[in-house]
Amino acid sequence: MEIESKFRTLIDVFNESLAEIKSPDKICLEIIRADREESLTFRQLKAGSRDFAVWMIQSQGIRVGDKIAIVGKNRTDWDIALWGVILAGAIPVLIDPERPVEGVINHLRHTDSKLDCYGRRLSGYRIPAGIEGFYRKTRHSFHRNDHL
C-alpha cells in the first residue's frame, strides 16, 4: 500500500499551511510557565522565520545543507529559529541546554555547524557556565536579539 503525501518538503508544509490561515494574527503558539508567558502569532512566525532565513543566507553565507545548531529551551524563539533554518535549506541540529555542560559542548564539537543559535539574552535563560566560553572561542554565534 502506497500513501501519497500532500507535501513534498517541510518548506511546502510551512508555506502552504500558513497560506491557508484566515487570521494571521491568531496565536499559533502559546507557552505558559510559572515564570513566564509567551505567545507567537502566525504572522510573527512567518515574518520572523523568513527574516532569519534571509539573514543567514545573506549575512552569514549559509547554504543548502549547512548544519545550524539551535541550543535552547522551549520558547517562541526556538520555533522561529527552527523554521528559519529549514526555510534557508539548512539542517537544524537541536541541542538541549538542560544536559550537562560537557554533553552540550561535546555535541557542539561534533556537529560541524556553520552557525550556532542560542537565546543568551532572553529573560530567564542563561547558558550554563562553561558553554558560553566555548561559543566565544570556537564559533560565530547568533543571539536572537542581535538580529530579530
Describe how the helices and strands are arranged.
Elements: H1 10-19, E1 27-32, E2 37-41, H2 42-60, E3 67-71, H3 76-87, E4 91-95, H4 101-109, E5 115-118, H5 131-138, E6 141-143, H6 144-147
Parallel strand pairs: 3-4, 3-5, 5-6
Antiparallel strand pairs: 1-2
Helix pairs in contact: 2-3
Written description of the protein model:
With 148 residues, the chain is α/β, with parallel strands linked by helices. The protein has a single domain (10-147), classed as Rossmann fold (3-Layer(aba) Sandwich). Helix content is 42%, strand content 19%. The protein is built from six helices and six strands, in the order αββαβαβαβαβα. The strands form two sheets. Strands 4-3-5-6 form a four-stranded parallel beta sheet, with helices on both faces. The N and C termini lie far apart (45 Å). Residues 120-148 have low confidence and may be disordered.
Count of helix runs? 6
Secondary-structure element sequence?
Answer: HEEHEHEHEHEH
Briefly note the structural class of the backbone: alpha/beta
Q: State the name of the first-level CATH class.
A: Alpha Beta
CATH topology: Rossmann fold
- What is the number of independent domains? 1
